[in-house]
C-alpha cells in the first residue's frame, strides 16, 4: 500500500508542472518638498566694552544732574551719548538717533491724548451699538451683557496701547543705535 501511495503521489506531481513564479516590484518613490520661511527680529547687538562703559557714565551723569535739580540735563546727555560712539559716522548716527528719540518723547503727550480720545470715541460707538441690539436678537450669544463686556475689553486694550507708547520710543532708539559704529 505504501508503494501505491508513493506511485500515486509521483503521478500527481509529474502531471502538474511546477513553475516558480517570480515577481519583481519596484517600490513607489514619492518625493515631497516643502519650504517655510521664518522671520525673526533679533535684538540689537551688544555694545563694545568701551561704548557700554561710556553710556553708563553718560546715564549716571544725567541722573546726578536730575537729582541736583539741573535744567539742561537732557541736552548734556545728548552730547555725552553721541560721544560714546566712533568719531565721525558713529557720532553722527548716534546724534540722529537720540534726536529722533527726543522728538518721539516730545510728541508723546499729544499722541497719548489723541490715542485716548480715539479709545473713548470707539467705546462710545460700541456701547451705542450694544444698546441697539433688539430684544431676542441672537447675534450676541450672551445678549447685551456680553456686548458691553466686549466693548469694555476693547476700551481697556486700547488704553493699554496708549499707555505703552513711550516703550515704542525707547525701542526705536535701541534699534537705531544698533547701526551706529561703536568706539
Give the key terms.
single chain, 183 residues, mainly alpha, 6 helices
Outline the fold blueprint.
Blueprint lengths: L1 H14 L33 H19 L5 H10 L6 H43 L11 H21 L1 H13 L6
Helix pairs in contact: 2-3, 3-4, 4-5, 4-6
Q: Can you characterise this structure?
A:
This protein has 183 residues and is mainly alpha-helical. It has one domain. It contains six helices and no strands. The protein has helices at 2-15, 49-67, 73-82, 89-131, 143-163, 165-177. The longest helix is centred in the middle third of the chain and has 43 residues, at 89-131. It is elongated, with a radius of gyration of 39 Å. Mean pLDDT is 78; it is low at 1-22.
Count of beta strands: 0
Largest beta-sheet characterization: none
Order of helices and strands: HHHHHH
Which term fits the overall shape?
A: elongated
- Tell me the count of domains: 1
Counting H and I runs of at least 4 residues, what is the number of helices?
6
Give a short synopsis of this structure:
Helices cover 66% and strands 0% of the residues. The chain has 183 residues and is an all-alpha fold.
Amino acid at each position: 500500500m505504501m508503494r501505491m501511495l508513493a506511485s500515486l503521489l509521483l503521478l500527481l506531481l509529474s502531471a502538474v508542472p511546477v513553475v516558480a513564479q517570480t515577481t519583481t516590484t519596484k517600490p513607489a518613490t514619492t518625493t515631497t518638498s516643502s519650504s517655510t520661511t521664518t522671520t525673526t527680529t533679533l535684538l540689537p547687538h551688544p555694545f563694545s566694552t568701551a561704548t557700554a562703559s561710556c553710556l553708563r557714565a553718560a546715564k549716571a551723569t544725567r541722573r546726578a544732574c536730575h537729582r541736583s535739580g539741573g535744567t539742561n540735563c537732557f541736552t548734556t546727555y545728548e552730547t555725552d551719548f553721541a560721544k560714546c560712539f566712533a568719531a565721525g559716522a558713529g557720532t553722527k548716527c548716534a546724534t540722529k538717533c537720540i534726536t529722533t528719540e527726543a522728538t518721539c518723547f516730545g510728541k508723546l503727550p499729544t499722541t497719548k491724548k489723541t490715542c485716548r480720545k480715539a479709545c473713548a470715541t470707539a467705546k462710545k460707538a460700541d456701547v451705542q451699538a450694544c444698546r441697539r441690539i433688539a430684544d431676542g436678537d441672537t447675534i450676541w450669544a450672551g445678549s447685551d451683557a456680553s456686548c458691553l463686556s466686549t466693548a469694555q475689553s476693547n476700551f481697556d486694550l486700547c488704553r493699554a496701547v496708549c499707555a505703552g507708547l513711550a516703550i515704542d520710543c525707547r525701542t526705536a532708539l535701541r534699534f537705531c543705535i544698533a547701526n551706529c559704529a561703536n568706539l
